């Protein structure tokens, strides 16, 4: 129904407006009597064989929602009904910010892709913390970044504010230094600043009575030498794992009219590269740390490929937009089938 009826209709309108429309529609739908039973029957697949224990947390299945979709933690309850094993909110910054000027979100239909240059638009960490107080038992990741106006030398202050405020209401953290849409943010991926940032966050973490996993989200555009640095940084800082990958700034072999737009590209063109990064980290890192695989998962086959390459968990975003909520259950079914 989604691909034959809903998607063609939604794709006629501006992507950002559709995003907000979908949010309000899902919120309204979830209030209809019987909706929860409908969602459970149609979208959820509960099976003990799908459960995963990764970095000390128990996931009811390995398919999560990537950051960027529910930035402000407005819809995590409704989204959890669609069968996700975990939901990552954010990227959040200490102060609210509007992000980049519109238009900043583009569908590349022929390429099954999206380009975004949102620029960490969010209502600020405090608003999200407020909403997360009423978590109905879904695993939540908190993806944290810095405000655009904060210079890189003061970046840690922003990450610290988000870390401290979110600590009581999220299950794990993701340090985002890989978005291409905040000026100079990717400079923080360099070995020295990144090591310092993660060591300081780990120090805060270690001061807590019970620590929470901290993961690093990396760009797909890193060279093998830079990926070697990432492996070394994970070992040095003892963080819990890596999310591979964020969006790409590459623009190879695209056909859509919006292919020249600036921003991060996600979806099908990223499938191969993100799997290569996962495989490289898994092999060179000797499988010592878990990897969450994300980037161009538009089918159960794409998901299985990521898991075989070495991902412990996977996340959807663009695939969820193009394929609809049924993709989650299809992937979980395929995972069960692989196990036989």
TrEMBL record:
PROSITE patterns: DHODEHASE_2. The gene is pyrD. PANTHER family: DIHYDROOROTATE DEHYDROGENASE (QUINONE), MITOCHONDRIAL, DIHYDROOROTATE DEHYDROGENASE (QUINONE), MITOCHONDRIAL-RELATED. One of its GO terms (cellular component) is plasma membrane. This is Dihydroorotate dehydrogenase (quinone). Its main location: membrane. The keyword Cell membrane applies. It is found in: Cell membrane; Membrane. Substrate binds at residues 71, 116-120, 176, 181, 246-247. Residues 50-339 form the Dihydroorotate dehydrogenase catalytic domain. Gene3D superfamilies: Aldolase class I. Binds 1 FMN per subunit. Monomer. Its EC number is 1.3.5.2. Keywords: Cell membrane, Flavoprotein, FMN, Membrane, Oxidoreductase, Pyrimidine biosynthesis. It catalyses: (S)-dihydroorotate + a quinone = orotate + a quinol. One of its GO terms (biological process) is 'de novo' UMP biosynthetic process. It is an enzyme of class 1 (oxidoreductase). Its cofactor is FMN. Pfam families: DHO_dh. FMN binds at residues 67-71, 91, 143, 176, 217, 245, 267, 296, 317-318.
């Amino acid at each position: 129904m989604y691909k034959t009826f809903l998607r063609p209709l939604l794709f006629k309108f501006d992507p950002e407006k559709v995003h907000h429309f979908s949010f309000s529609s899902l919120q309204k739908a979830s209030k209809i009597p019987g909706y929860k039973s409908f969602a459970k029957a149609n979208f959820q697949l509960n099976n003990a064989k799908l459960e995963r224990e990764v970095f000390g947390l128990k996931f009811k299945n390995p398919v999560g929602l990537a950051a960027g979709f529910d930035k402000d933690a407005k819809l995590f309850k409704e989204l959890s009904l669609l069968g996700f094993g975990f939901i990552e909110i954010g990227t959040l910054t200490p102060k609210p910010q509007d992000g980049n000027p519109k238009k900043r979100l583009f569908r590349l239909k022929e390429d099954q892709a999206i380009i975004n240059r949102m620029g960490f638009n969010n209502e600020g960490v405090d608003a999200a913390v407020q909403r997360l107080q009423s978590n109905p038992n879904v695993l939540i990741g908190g993806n944290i970044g810095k405000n655009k106006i904060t210079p890189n030398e003061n970046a840690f202050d922003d990450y610290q504010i988000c870390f401290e405020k979110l600590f009581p209401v999220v299950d794990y953290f993701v340090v985002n230094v890989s978005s291409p849409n905040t000026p100079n943010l990717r400079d923080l991926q360099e070995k020295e600043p990144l090591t310092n940032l993660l060591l300081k966050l780990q120090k805060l973490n270690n001061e807590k009575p019970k620590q929470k996993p901290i993961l690093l989200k990396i760009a797909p555009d890193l060279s093998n030498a830079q990926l070697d640095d990432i492996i070394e940084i994970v070992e040095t800082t003892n963080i819990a794992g890596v999310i591979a990958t964020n969006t790409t700034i590459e623009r190879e072999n695209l056909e859509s009219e919006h292919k020249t737009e600036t921003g991060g590209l996600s979806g099908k063109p990223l499938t191969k590269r993100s799997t290569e990064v996962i495989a490289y980290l898994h092999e060179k890192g000797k499988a010592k740390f878990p990897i969450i695989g994300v980037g161009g998962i538009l089918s159960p086959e794409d998901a299985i490929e990521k898991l075989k390459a070495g991902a412990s968990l996977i996340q959807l975003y663009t695939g969820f937009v193009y394929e609809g909520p049924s993709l989650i259950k299809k992937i979980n079914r395929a995972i069960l089938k692989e196990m036989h």
